[in-house]
Amino acid sequence: MVEKIGRFHCFYVKIRGFSTEETEEILERNSKVWNLCKRSGHIGGTQAAPATIIQPVKGCAGKVTSACGPKIYEFVFDNSGILSEKCCEQLLNAGRECHDSDTNSILSEREFSKEEREEILARHSEVWNLCKRSGHIRGTQPVPAPTVQPLTGCAGKVTSACGPKVYAFVFDKSGVLSEKCCKLLLNAGRQCHDSETNSILSEGEFSAEEKKEIMKRHNQVWNLCKKNGHIGKENTVF
Where is each Prolamin-like domain found (predicted)? Predict the structure, then answer.
Protein backbone atom coordinates (compact mmCIF):
# COMPACT_ATOMS: atom_id res chain seq x y z
CA MET A 1 0.00 0.00 0.00
CA VAL A 2 2.71 2.47 0.93
CA GLU A 3 4.47 2.03 -2.45
CA LYS A 4 1.18 2.64 -4.32
CA ILE A 5 0.50 5.85 -2.41
CA GLY A 6 4.07 7.09 -2.84
CA ARG A 7 6.42 9.03 -0.63
CA PHE A 8 5.26 12.45 -1.74
CA HIS A 9 1.55 11.86 -1.16
CA CYS A 10 2.36 12.37 2.52
CA PHE A 11 5.06 14.96 1.88
CA TYR A 12 2.68 17.26 0.00
CA VAL A 13 -0.15 17.21 2.54
CA LYS A 14 -1.03 20.79 3.41
CA ILE A 15 -0.86 21.11 7.18
CA ARG A 16 -3.18 23.75 8.61
CA GLY A 17 -3.94 24.84 12.15
CA PHE A 18 -0.85 23.32 13.76
CA SER A 19 1.88 25.08 15.68
CA THR A 20 5.45 25.04 14.38
CA GLU A 21 6.39 22.36 16.94
CA GLU A 22 3.39 20.19 16.03
CA THR A 23 4.15 20.52 12.33
CA GLU A 24 7.77 19.44 12.87
CA GLU A 25 6.63 16.39 14.88
CA ILE A 26 4.05 15.44 12.25
CA LEU A 27 6.60 15.64 9.42
CA GLU A 28 9.09 13.62 11.48
CA ARG A 29 6.50 10.85 12.05
CA ASN A 30 5.56 11.08 8.36
CA SER A 31 9.13 10.14 7.42
CA LYS A 32 9.30 7.48 10.15
CA VAL A 33 6.15 5.73 8.88
CA TRP A 34 7.53 5.70 5.34
CA ASN A 35 10.91 4.29 6.36
CA LEU A 36 9.45 1.62 8.70
CA CYS A 37 6.95 0.42 6.07
CA LYS A 38 9.65 0.34 3.40
CA ARG A 39 12.11 -1.55 5.58
CA SER A 40 9.83 -3.94 7.50
CA GLY A 41 6.60 -4.02 5.50
CA HIS A 42 4.64 -3.24 8.67
CA ILE A 43 4.80 -1.36 11.94
CA GLY A 44 4.54 -3.58 14.98
CA GLY A 45 4.96 -3.05 18.70
CA THR A 46 8.74 -3.30 18.45
CA GLN A 47 10.17 -0.79 16.03
CA ALA A 48 13.32 -1.57 14.09
CA ALA A 49 16.28 0.80 14.22
CA PRO A 50 15.81 3.80 11.90
CA ALA A 51 17.08 3.36 8.35
CA THR A 52 20.32 5.12 7.49
CA ILE A 53 19.53 8.14 5.38
CA ILE A 54 21.43 11.27 4.44
CA GLN A 55 20.57 13.97 6.96
CA PRO A 56 20.02 17.55 5.77
CA VAL A 57 22.85 19.98 6.46
CA LYS A 58 22.68 21.44 9.96
CA GLY A 59 21.14 24.89 9.96
CA CYS A 60 19.01 24.35 6.84
CA ALA A 61 15.84 23.22 8.63
CA GLY A 62 13.08 25.82 8.47
CA LYS A 63 14.77 28.07 5.93
CA VAL A 64 12.19 26.97 3.37
CA THR A 65 8.75 26.89 5.01
CA SER A 66 6.32 23.95 5.03
CA ALA A 67 4.18 25.94 2.59
CA CYS A 68 6.94 26.35 -0.03
CA GLY A 69 9.07 23.22 0.48
CA PRO A 70 6.52 20.78 -0.98
CA LYS A 71 6.02 23.00 -4.03
CA ILE A 72 9.75 23.13 -4.72
CA TYR A 73 10.21 19.37 -4.47
CA GLU A 74 7.00 18.66 -6.38
CA PHE A 75 8.77 20.27 -9.31
CA VAL A 76 12.04 18.43 -8.62
CA PHE A 77 10.55 14.96 -8.13
CA ASP A 78 7.24 15.12 -10.05
CA ASN A 79 8.08 17.70 -12.74
CA SER A 80 4.94 19.70 -12.00
CA GLY A 81 3.68 22.78 -10.22
CA ILE A 82 4.54 26.46 -10.04
CA LEU A 83 6.61 28.54 -7.63
CA SER A 84 5.71 32.01 -6.41
CA GLU A 85 8.24 34.80 -6.03
CA LYS A 86 8.04 34.27 -2.27
CA CYS A 87 8.96 30.58 -2.54
CA CYS A 88 11.78 31.30 -4.99
CA GLU A 89 13.09 33.97 -2.63
CA GLN A 90 13.06 31.49 0.29
CA LEU A 91 14.91 28.89 -1.79
CA LEU A 92 17.63 31.31 -2.88
CA ASN A 93 18.00 32.76 0.63
CA ALA A 94 18.39 29.24 2.04
CA GLY A 95 21.36 28.78 -0.31
CA ARG A 96 22.48 26.21 -2.85
CA GLU A 97 24.06 24.00 -0.16
CA CYS A 98 20.72 23.62 1.63
CA HIS A 99 18.89 23.01 -1.67
CA ASP A 100 21.41 20.27 -2.57
CA SER A 101 21.18 18.80 0.92
CA ASP A 102 17.37 18.56 0.91
CA THR A 103 17.25 16.87 -2.48
CA ASN A 104 20.00 14.38 -1.57
CA SER A 105 18.25 13.61 1.72
CA ILE A 106 14.99 12.78 -0.09
CA LEU A 107 16.86 10.77 -2.74
CA SER A 108 18.45 8.65 -0.01
CA GLU A 109 15.07 7.67 1.44
CA ARG A 110 13.95 5.53 -1.50
CA GLU A 111 15.23 3.76 -4.58
CA PHE A 112 15.46 5.48 -7.94
CA SER A 113 16.85 4.15 -11.19
CA LYS A 114 19.92 5.79 -12.69
CA GLU A 115 17.74 7.50 -15.30
CA GLU A 116 15.30 8.78 -12.67
CA ARG A 117 18.14 10.18 -10.56
CA GLU A 118 19.62 11.98 -13.57
CA GLU A 119 16.24 13.55 -14.41
CA ILE A 120 15.64 14.54 -10.79
CA LEU A 121 19.06 16.18 -10.46
CA ALA A 122 18.53 18.00 -13.76
CA ARG A 123 15.23 19.43 -12.48
CA HIS A 124 16.90 20.16 -9.13
CA SER A 125 19.36 22.45 -10.92
CA GLU A 126 16.62 23.81 -13.17
CA VAL A 127 14.51 24.97 -10.21
CA TRP A 128 17.47 26.85 -8.76
CA ASN A 129 18.42 28.46 -12.08
CA LEU A 130 14.84 29.47 -12.97
CA CYS A 131 14.31 31.03 -9.55
CA LYS A 132 17.62 32.85 -9.83
CA ARG A 133 16.90 34.13 -13.34
CA SER A 134 13.16 34.82 -13.27
CA GLY A 135 12.25 34.96 -9.58
CA HIS A 136 9.37 32.52 -10.09
CA ILE A 137 8.31 29.42 -12.05
CA ARG A 138 5.14 29.41 -14.11
CA GLY A 139 3.79 26.20 -15.65
CA THR A 140 5.46 22.82 -16.07
CA GLN A 141 7.52 23.58 -19.19
CA PRO A 142 9.85 26.51 -18.38
CA VAL A 143 11.33 28.52 -21.22
CA PRO A 144 14.97 27.56 -21.91
CA ALA A 145 17.59 29.95 -20.59
CA PRO A 146 18.56 32.66 -23.06
CA THR A 147 22.00 32.25 -24.56
CA VAL A 148 24.47 34.77 -25.91
CA GLN A 149 24.42 34.53 -29.68
CA PRO A 150 27.72 34.59 -31.61
CA LEU A 151 28.43 37.79 -33.51
CA THR A 152 27.00 38.06 -37.01
CA GLY A 153 29.70 37.25 -39.55
CA CYS A 154 31.70 34.96 -37.25
CA ALA A 155 29.90 31.72 -38.13
CA GLY A 156 32.04 29.41 -40.27
CA LYS A 157 35.28 31.36 -39.89
CA VAL A 158 36.64 28.57 -37.69
CA THR A 159 35.63 25.33 -39.39
CA SER A 160 33.72 22.42 -37.82
CA ALA A 161 37.00 20.49 -37.91
CA CYS A 162 39.02 23.10 -36.00
CA GLY A 163 36.38 24.71 -33.78
CA PRO A 164 35.98 21.73 -31.40
CA LYS A 165 39.77 21.50 -31.05
CA VAL A 166 40.07 25.19 -30.18
CA TYR A 167 37.36 24.99 -27.52
CA ALA A 168 38.59 21.64 -26.19
CA PHE A 169 41.56 23.70 -25.00
CA VAL A 170 39.41 26.46 -23.61
CA PHE A 171 36.85 24.30 -21.79
CA ASP A 172 38.49 20.88 -21.32
CA LYS A 173 42.23 21.69 -21.15
CA SER A 174 43.01 19.03 -23.74
CA GLY A 175 44.18 18.43 -27.31
CA VAL A 176 46.58 20.03 -29.77
CA LEU A 177 46.12 22.64 -32.47
CA SER A 178 47.65 22.43 -35.94
CA GLU A 179 49.06 25.42 -37.79
CA LYS A 180 45.95 25.36 -39.99
CA CYS A 181 43.60 25.61 -36.99
CA CYS A 182 45.64 28.36 -35.35
CA LYS A 183 45.62 30.27 -38.63
CA LEU A 184 41.83 29.96 -38.91
CA LEU A 185 41.40 31.18 -35.34
CA LEU A 186 43.67 34.20 -35.85
CA ASN A 187 42.08 35.06 -39.20
CA ALA A 188 38.62 34.93 -37.58
CA GLY A 189 39.79 37.66 -35.24
CA ARG A 190 39.85 38.22 -31.51
CA GLN A 191 36.32 39.59 -31.47
CA CYS A 192 34.94 36.36 -32.95
CA HIS A 193 37.05 34.26 -30.56
CA ASP A 194 35.64 36.21 -27.60
CA SER A 195 32.12 35.91 -28.97
CA GLU A 196 32.31 32.13 -29.39
CA THR A 197 33.61 31.55 -25.86
CA ASN A 198 30.97 33.84 -24.32
CA SER A 199 28.23 32.07 -26.29
CA ILE A 200 29.32 28.65 -24.99
CA LEU A 201 29.65 30.01 -21.43
CA SER A 202 26.07 31.25 -21.53
CA GLU A 203 24.75 27.79 -22.40
CA GLY A 204 26.05 26.03 -19.29
CA GLU A 205 26.47 26.42 -15.56
CA PHE A 206 29.92 27.46 -14.38
CA SER A 207 31.11 28.66 -11.01
CA ALA A 208 33.01 31.93 -10.69
CA GLU A 209 36.26 29.95 -10.33
CA GLU A 210 35.52 27.86 -13.44
CA LYS A 211 34.75 30.95 -15.50
CA LYS A 212 38.00 32.53 -14.36
CA GLU A 213 39.98 29.45 -15.45
CA ILE A 214 38.11 29.21 -18.76
CA MET A 215 38.79 32.85 -19.62
CA LYS A 216 42.46 32.37 -18.71
CA ARG A 217 42.74 29.44 -21.15
CA HIS A 218 40.70 31.39 -23.70
CA ASN A 219 43.44 34.06 -23.66
CA GLN A 220 46.28 31.50 -23.60
CA VAL A 221 45.00 29.71 -26.70
CA TRP A 222 44.94 32.97 -28.61
CA ASN A 223 48.38 34.03 -27.39
CA LEU A 224 50.02 30.63 -28.07
CA CYS A 225 48.62 30.52 -31.60
CA LYS A 226 49.83 34.06 -32.21
CA LYS A 227 53.28 33.32 -30.75
CA ASN A 228 54.00 29.79 -32.05
CA GLY A 229 51.54 29.25 -34.89
CA HIS A 230 50.39 25.98 -33.33
CA ILE A 231 49.84 24.27 -29.97
CA GLY A 232 51.51 20.93 -29.32
CA LYS A 233 51.57 18.61 -26.32
CA GLU A 234 54.66 20.37 -25.00
CA ASN A 235 52.68 23.56 -24.36
CA THR A 236 49.25 22.22 -23.53
CA VAL A 237 47.17 24.85 -21.80
CA PHE A 238 46.52 24.25 -18.09
Answer: 60-131, 154-225
